[in-house]
Amino acid sequence: MLTLFRWLLRMTVALIVLLVLAAILTWYFAVRSLPDYNATYAVQGISGPVEIVRSTENVPHIFGQSDEDVFFALGLAHAQDRLFQMTLLRRAAQGRLAEVYGAGAFPSDDLARRLELYRTASDSLAAQDAPTKAALEAYAAGVNQWIAEVNEQALGRGAPEFFLAPQDIAYWQPADSLAILKLLAITSSDAAAAEILRARLSLAWPERGPELLLGEGGTGPLPRYESLFPGARFAAPESRRPATNDRSVGDVLVPGRGLGANAFAAVAERTAANGALLANDPQAPLIAPALYYLARLQLGSGGVIGATIPGMPVIFSGRNPQLAWGLSPAPLDDADIAIEEVQPGAAHRYRGLDGWTDFNSRSEVIRVLDEPDRTVILRFSRNGPLIPGLDPGLADVTPQGFVPALRWTGFSRTDTTMTALMGLMHAHDIDSAASVMQQVVAPSMTVSLADASGIRQQIVGVEPVRAEGHPTGGAMPVPGWDANADWTGIRQIAANRSDPGSELVIATEERGAMAMRRGRLTRLLEDREIHSRDSFIAAQLDMVSPAARSLLPLVGADLWFTDEPAAAGTPERQRQDALNLLAEWDGAMNEHLPEPLIYAAWMGALQDRLIRDELGPLSDDILQLHPGFIDAVFRNRNGAAAWCDIVQSAPVEDCTTIARQALDRAILALTERYGPDVTSWRWGDAHQARHVHPGLGRMPALRWIVNLTQSISGGAFSVNRTDTMGFGATPFEAISGPGYRGVYDLADPDSSVFITSTGQSGHPLSRHYDDLADLWRRGEYIGMSLDPDLARAAATGITNLVPQ
């Protein structure tokens, strides 16, 4: 017995020693991948010495003797800090995530292959101008130089993620940068998703279903969707909600999700310092590290500083000494779904304009980790690629024996958007900037510009020209064989959104009457005669929800102060306390208040109660609040109050009854989670930003290290926009928000301010992994100067590159 005990003791000690050694080795190799920012590297591919000066916040200031040398160094700096993120984005665009992450990533790969993101990007390389090609090649050489350094010096494979998700790190190619831009473009477009939702609503309740999207785009009265396909059979509608609200590795940029941004500017005459102001805050999925990366480049045309996306050698939002710019998605309908009829018994043929014809087809092999390779057949009709996986709801609107195809302006194989963005960095005034941006193809965007002479807003990109007599005006999917549903061409947009003498310009991605944030921004800017950098910051951080201010007086009109005082601890008293709080609330979605949580839960429960009996399983997929719809129902526009009646019940319910029932349901749900005291609830307890690491964020042992969680203010309709999950155990969790904020002051350019949502480094062990996160949450910023002396004086590290 004693001998057995001794052996067990020895084995236990040995196991502990082995675990400690394994932990030490893991730590050692992980730390080895932290870059040395004070090193000197002899490299090939540069014409002279280059300096990468790192600021306190790890922002690289890059100085070289040629533009190509500067882009080379930017590629190296991106790879030093974000190599894993860059390879993840590249794999997402190539359709090669499943090679590393297994079968769960296969649907993303299948869709990327069908969309041909990498093929169209590779073909578009030839369309770029010479300086852009040179920049892409130099940038790729810089990335590859760092990969070579990692391999030669055994620097921990470049990032600790590569140990946990082993993969070959292929050298970077110029087409890789264009492919990531294509991925960003297809993510920015939500036109196809909107078409699918309208069609699902039309099928669920043809007479009134599309009212849910009142004021959110469209072309007026629409035909019944099923009338477009006479005799066709549709499957019974299902809930297409994901089984879990955990975000997957492919959730960095998701085709069709839609992205947003605010951009606004004021002319010098409307500013205290007599210099134009411009602010921009592009939205992004909340991930760790953030999608955006701050950088300063000293180009031959002058210094340029602002936000980049690792993998691409351009400043998307920023300034140079003479010009400031901000980009936001343009609310344009750039895509259509065409429903193709498949010839019975011949899956390779479909109904064309002149009868049955063959799909263009080819097969591709998708490798899947720990599983056999999968062969997919990619098919293309005259309308575009077949994309059954573009949106979960497509299955509901595709009749049996039919397949969906996608038309999208971004399928161009001569896309010069990268050339436009490259030219924007070199522009010195709004005229030259507006001129180069006319080369944008996809994504279509609103570009806001400011210089000493004034401000301007311009929509750029390409849009389809639809045939006269188009059956839906682009608002719903159409029969693929209907010539009236064709695009007759694609035209370049170069439309000014602002008048030449505009003193203020404002851009959001919202459409039609739903442009609530635009209305709020307009009021904030026009209520002040003179603006300053601080007033622009305050506007950018504004957390007031115009939706709350609009809906609460309407929905609660017959509920305020109508009941006798109820006993403490009763549901009636909770309702009274909640209504009393909301009656005095100004609509600010402040994380420290209970009112935003009560309002959000009430409106969510109300919308669900209005639509569930009519829309059935489809209501599970309506995760976004539609204020225009609720407004129409409670004002009974065109009889919309019919939504308040519960079809299955005998009595006819009125809207006041439904509003009270929804409030009681919301209070009950909040009580179960946060306790009975209404005044103790806090919006920030439910509205938390969970910055999820795409590669490691779902691993139980590592998620506590690599994911960042913060309570934040704001909401879906505030200027400081944060979109929520909408379902599951954490329906108010923020899943997207302003991944970058910048305010540019041309009166004193070096007083311009910048911030990203996490930190510059993608290495979880770096102090720069999350050092900007608290500043971002609190609405604070950092400064970045174009003065070389200031950059060097405050440097915390200087990397020197010398020609080999």
UniProtKB/TrEMBL annotation:
UniProt cofactor note = Binds 1 Ca(2+) ion per dimer.
Keywords from UniProt, A to Z, are: Calcium, Hydrolase, Membrane, Metal-binding, Transmembrane, Transmembrane helix, Zymogen
Record flagged with keyword Isomerase: no
Q: Does the keyword Coiled coil apply?
A: no
GO function terms (MF aspect): hydrolase activity, acting on carbon-nitrogen (but not peptide) bonds, in linear amides; metal ion binding
Residues at which Ca(2+) binds:
E195, D333, D336
What cofactors does this protein use? Ca(2+)
What biological process terms from GO does the record include?
A: antibiotic biosynthetic process
Ranges annotated as spanning the membrane: 7-30
- Which PANTHER family does UniProt cross-reference here? ACYL-HOMOSERINE LACTONE ACYLASE QUIP, PEPTIDASE S45 PENICILLIN AMIDASE
What family classification does the UniProt entry report for this protein? Belongs to the peptidase S45 family.
The name of this protein is Penicillin acylase family protein
Q: What organism is the protein native to?
A: Paracoccus caeni
